[in-house]
Design the sequence.
């Protein structure tokens, strides 16, 4: 399946990044890669937006960062979820589910 | 934390670069693992990531205060670049400071004059009641005491009403919570107030019982005038202004003190608050008296106010204001009151002419008080504001042009920044920061200039009433808005222009400019348009300057017809200390003789007022003929012509032998003789002084002398026919008199002796208006002279600014064509045609500018006609001079760069390429 829409819905990138980090710290390239892979390449992360998003999340205190060494021995900047970030993720997820459910109901009723 | 982030930006930025670099490496590794060549892997990874600079900018942009940091960086950058070109910066800042400063100063006066509210409670519910009519001849306003004004919309506008009309208005309970009157009749315009035996002149105001309550004024001491005071017989109380009370009651409480007003006893009951200046800032009262006091005061003077005048429906004298009830609009009240007034005034007509032109009532916002000062000053101020506005426009055009030239030399820098990924918006913002910084520095400096300008203008208008301008928030807001607007105006066009460029050619361009480019680009037309604009506006300013310079020289060379040097004027009003007819004439006669005895005094005479501040007319006719309304007269004493040094053409001056019992005589001016006795000797003819309106003969006089024409009344008026009559030969009886003392040397030396002599004659006589004839003339013309000087100075300033701009733009254009000119010369062009080529461009620009502005100048100059003297607004000399000066300035501004261009060594010029 081709990428549905290269423009991701506003605000969802932040949520997806937070979700990716729940399994543990990761650097920018891994995060983008994981999002694309997990979504079966439906969602393509525009790399130009990734780093501004990461810095935005860090600025809000939802992730922290540190310089570390990666699996293939390269120096990389790793991002880690903070407790506030975890809380934000559950709020966002909850809200997202509600919205999706609501839209689904509308679309479902409309087609019936 | 945010501030720390700003400071940490460079470190964080470096970290981000590193992070992006590592990201790129992962991507390359991945690509290579998929079998790409290293070069292809790197290329694909770069394409996928995009421009790292842009990402860095965006990361920085996610910070919520990024704009602040950007602004800070823009500001420091702007300050740095402006410091690098100090001469440009200085010129631009100075030009803007002059423009903004002048505008702010003038605006502060308009603000004080037009916008400020009266210092009373809820000024916005106050209304002024007035009327307008087609004419003030043959109307129901058979008698007036006060003023009516010509008006551009209606022929005549008045704010005075008969007392019965005031009583009618007071009955309108539905619309008004208060209706009150105040009057400025001649009974009180200048009163003699005696406090503890000391006599002072004061400006009085008659106010109705409801005046202070209606305005909502709270007394500073005692109480104010109440309705009970304003009844016949009761009206013997007075309220003092705060300033007057402080001046004359230093250590005593004025409340309850007895005073004499024009020799009548009054009791001070209170003091008005310090900030209260009445309702008309052009006449600030010292003392408030009840309206009904004018019967007693009127009995003191000839043709004074009488009790009957309260019932007279054709005698207009009371100015009326009212306070609207909450919820009533001005329009509602006006429609109701106008209807009532219409039916009332219809009952007061005496003939058909009156019926055809009944005054029509209207209401006007009263929050800013009365408008006499406004009528007097708003026109000159609007004119000054227009001139300073034009200067600001020229200044903006000029700075815009300088910026445009500067932006062109920064083309490479801008192209470089764009090629490195800066967006056009970002660069426009950077350039706008620069121009706004320029404007702000200019604005701040302009504010300092404005403070100085306000002091200067306050001094200029000081003699003319209570006009206080200050830097309040209105004015500061206007200065700030001007700064912002001018910054946007002169910055935006160059910024848009210079960021719109072809990167490749801009980067290739050499430092010497795009010499040899033959494409007439848009920028050239923009800068040409700016030059044309400057020339057009400068012409307007120069025409104004020409008109004012000529007015100035006309004013300074006014032919007086009398000698202004060594002449002392003193005003004395013996009526106010109780002198009655016929003794008052003798009193003045004796005082004249005592004054003549002062050592150093050559001649003494007297007249009802100084000759340049009078404007009296009564019907004066040759027997059997109709009186000529243009004829003016002046009541004077013995030796008048001798004292004034007005030459006699024929006959004799008035002498001590012209007494109340001797045959009535008169002296006429040459102009009067020319009109009434063409080709004849007027001596021995008879002249009749008639009473208005019935034509009874008051004096049957013999012409005993003819004088040369002397300036009579307003110094800027034409010569009028004048008749001099002795002050002591019947009606009109003498009232206030001005004594004229011709001295041997500077009159200042005898003032003390004059005071002694007057005190000996009558100790109660105040002597406050003592001045030399020279000072009076200077005062009378000072405002006009200074206005003319100010306008000329503004125009010169505009010319300088425009020339600087012209020179700058033309040198810049020539510099850009250095290469082209070099090629032309190398190909054999002679220098003459090259100079001409450059000058032709200048002349075309100047021609276009003039073609636009000459019709505008002709059309708009009529608005300054009232400020001109002795000339017409479309004066060909002023217009011609302005055009010559402007074309001359343009040619000179073009000549220097043109000659420089022509002397270019072709080899050097071509090496530029």
Sequence:
């Amino acid at each position: 399946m081709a990428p549905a829409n290269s423009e991701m819905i506003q605000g969802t990138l932040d949520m997806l990044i937070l979700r990716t980090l729940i399994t543990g710290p990761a650097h920018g390239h891994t995060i983008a890669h994981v999002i694309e892979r997990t979504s079966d390449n439906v969602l393509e992360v525009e790399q130009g937006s990734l780093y501004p998003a990461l810095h935005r999340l860090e600025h809000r205190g939802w992730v922290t960062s540190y310089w570390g060494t990666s699996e293939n021995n390269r120096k990389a900047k790793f991002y880690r979820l903070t407790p506030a970030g975890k809380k934000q993720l559950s709020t966002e997820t909850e809200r997202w589910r509600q919205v999706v459910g609501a839209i689904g109901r509308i679309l479902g009723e409309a087609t019936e | 934390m945010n501030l720390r982030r700003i400071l940490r930006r460079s470190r964080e930025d470096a970290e981000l670069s590193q992070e992006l670099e590592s990201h790129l490496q992962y991507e390359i590794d991945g690509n290579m693992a998929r079998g790409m060549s290293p070069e292809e892997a790197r290329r694909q990874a770069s394409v996928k990531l995009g421009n790292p600079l842009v990402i860095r900018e965006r990361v920085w942009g996610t910070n919520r205060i990024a704009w602040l940091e950007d602004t800070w960086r823009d500001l420091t950058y702007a300050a740095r670049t402006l410091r690098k070109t100090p001469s440009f910066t200085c010129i631009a800042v100075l030009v803007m400071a002059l423009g903004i400063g002048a505008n702010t100063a003038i605006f502060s006066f308009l603000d004080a004059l037009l916008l400020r509210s009266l210092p009373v409670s809820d000024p916005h519910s106050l209304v002024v009641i007035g009327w307008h009519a087609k004419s003030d001849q043959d109307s129901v306003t058979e008698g007036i005491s006060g003023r009516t004004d010509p008006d551009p919309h209606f022929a005549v506008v008045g704010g005075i009403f008969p007392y019965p009309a005031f009583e009618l208005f007071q009955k309108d309970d539905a619309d008004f919570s208060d209706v009150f009157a105040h009057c400025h009749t001649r009974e009180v315009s200048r009163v003699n107030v005696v406090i503890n035996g000391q006599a002072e002149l004061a400006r009085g105001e008659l106010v109705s019982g409801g005046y202070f309550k209606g305005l909502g004024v709270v007394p500073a001491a005692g109480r104010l005038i109440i309705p009970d005071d304003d009844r016949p017989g009761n009206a013997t109380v007075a309220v003092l202004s705060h300033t007057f009370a402080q001046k004359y009651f230093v250590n005593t409480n004025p409340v309850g003190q007895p005073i004499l007003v024009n020799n009548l006893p009054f009791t001070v009951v209170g003091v008005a608050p310090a900030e209260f200046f009445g309702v008309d800032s052009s006449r600030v009262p010292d003392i408030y008296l009840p309206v009904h006091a004018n019967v007693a005061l009127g009995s003191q003077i000839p043709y004074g106010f009488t009790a009957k005048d309260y019932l007279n429906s054709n005698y207009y004298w009371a100015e009326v204001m009212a306070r609207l009830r909450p919820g009533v609009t001005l329009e509602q009240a006006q429609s109701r009151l106008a209807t009532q007034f219409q039916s009332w005034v219809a009952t007061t007509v005496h003939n058909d002419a009156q019926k055809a032109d009944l005054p029509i009532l209207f209401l006007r916002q009263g929050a800013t008080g009365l408008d006499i000062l406004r009528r007097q000053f708003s026109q000159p101020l609007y004119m000054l504001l227009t001139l300073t506005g034009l200067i600001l426009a020229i200044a903006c055009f000029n700075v815009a042009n300088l910026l445009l030239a500067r932006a062109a030399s920064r083309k490479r820098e801008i192209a470089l920044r764009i090629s490195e990924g800066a967006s056009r918006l970002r660069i426009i913002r950077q350039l706008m920061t620069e121009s706004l910084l320029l404007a702000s520095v200019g604005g701040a400096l302009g504010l300092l200039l404005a403070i100085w300008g306000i002091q200067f203008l306050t001094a200029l208008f000081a003699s003319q009433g209570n006009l206080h301008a200050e830097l309040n928030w209105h004015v500061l807001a206007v200065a700030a808005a001007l700064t912002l607007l001018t910054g946007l105006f002169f910055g935006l066009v160059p910024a848009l222009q210079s960021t719109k460029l072809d990167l490749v050619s801009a980067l290739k361009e050499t430092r010497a400019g795009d010499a040899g480019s033959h494409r007439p680009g848009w920028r050239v037309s923009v800068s040409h348009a700016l030059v044309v604009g400057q020339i057009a506006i400068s012409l307007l300013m120069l025409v104004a300057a020409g008109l004012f310079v000529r007015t100035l020289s006309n004013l300074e060379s006014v032919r007086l017809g009398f000698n202004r040097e060594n002449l002392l004027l003193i005003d004395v009003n013996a009526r106010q200390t109780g002198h009655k007819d016929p003794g008052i004439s003798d009193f003045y006669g004796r005082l004249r003789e005592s004054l003549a005895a002062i050592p150093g005094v050559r001649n003494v005479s007297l007249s009802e007022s100084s000759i340049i501040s009078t404007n009296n007319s009564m019907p004066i006719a040759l027997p059997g003929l109709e009186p000529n309304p243009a004829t003016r007269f002046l009541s004077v004493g013995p030796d008048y012509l001798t004292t004034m040094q007005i030459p006699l053409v024929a006959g004799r001056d008035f002498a001590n032998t012209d007494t109340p019992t001797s045959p009535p005589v008169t002296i006429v001016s040459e102009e009067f003789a020319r009109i009434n006795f063409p080709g004849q000797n007027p001596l021995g003819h008879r002249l009749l002084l008639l009473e208005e309106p019935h034509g009874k003969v008051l004096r049957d006089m013999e012409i005993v002398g003819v004088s040369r024409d002397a300036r009579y009344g307003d110094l800027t008026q034409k010569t009028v026919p004048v008749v001099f009559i002795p002050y002591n030969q019947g009606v009109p009886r003498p009232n206030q008199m001005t004594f004229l003392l011709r001295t041997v040397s500077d009159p200042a030396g005898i003032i003390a002796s004059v005071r002694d002599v007057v005190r000996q004659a009558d100790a109660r006589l105040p002597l406050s208006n003592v001045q030399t004839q020279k000072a009076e003339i200077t005062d009378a013309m000072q405002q006009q002279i200074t206005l003319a000087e100010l306008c000329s100075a503004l125009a010169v300033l505009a010319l300088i600014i425009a020339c600087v701009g012209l020179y700058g733009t033309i040198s810049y254009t020539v510099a850009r064509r250095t290469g082209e000119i070099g090629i032309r010369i190398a190909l054999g062009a002679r220098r003459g045609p090259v100079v001409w080529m450059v000058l032709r461009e200048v002349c075309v620009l100047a021609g276009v500018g003039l073609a636009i502005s000459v019709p505008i100048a002709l059309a708009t100059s009529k608005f300054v006609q009232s400020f001109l003297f002795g000339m017409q607004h479309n004066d060909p000399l002023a217009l011609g001079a302005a055009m010559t000066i402007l074309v001359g300035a343009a040619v000179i501004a073009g000549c220097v760069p043109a000659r420089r261009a022509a002397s270019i060594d072709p080899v050097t010029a071509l090496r530029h390429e």
Observations:
- Chain B touches chain A at residues 15-16, 18-20, 22-23, 25-27, 29, 48-50, 54-55, 58-59, 61-63 (CB under 8 Å).
